[in-house]
Amino acid sequence: MLMMKSADLPDTIPVFPLPGALLLPRARLPLHLFEPRYLQMFEDVLKTSDRMIGMVQPHRGPKGEEQLHAIGCAGRVTQFSETEDGRYMVTLAGISRFRITEEVTGFNPYRKASVSWAGFERDMGAAEEDPDFDRAGFLSALERFFDAHDLRTDWESLKDADTELLINSLSMLCPFEPEEKQALLEAPSLTTRRETLVTLIEFSLRGGTAEETLQ
């Protein structure tokens, strides 16, 4: 597992607003970069010592303009490959959540922000536990959810997976709306993230949306 210290975290990072793309600490997110501005962002990131990219959920402001949620999660580039036509396949390893303090204007074609890591120190520690986790009941609801959405998975692997890896991977992979992904990101603990995940699954199974509980 990739570990960093608070002192290693930069004050300013490039941010990648990608709806529905959720990164969580100690998890990994594959990215496919092909837009010129994000190719430039990636090439600039490789020149830094921290190799950090901040993943942020965008949302629409009152006038329809794209805004960024205040809280995102930064990942360190750990793997990448370049295709023959100049695209990049990148893997980010989730390091820590952050809070945007202000966007940084400049000559870059991509967005950058000054960020604060305060309040997310736990993200850089050991894997979290969820002592009240009912794996059997959770997997039963998850199986109904997957059937309803025509999704497939290796159920034997899920039965044996580490609790944090299981909950965080499903939070990242399940087809939830961006605002629902944001709620999963902002959950203060693994237990509350699991509770939020269960709520989203149950509302989906009832034919509703989780917005009723998240507003």
Automatic annotation (TrEMBL):
Residues 13-205 form the Lon N-terminal domain. This is Lon N-terminal domain-containing protein. SMART domains: LON. Pfam families: LON_substr_bdg. Transmembrane segments: none annotated. It comes from the Bacteria.
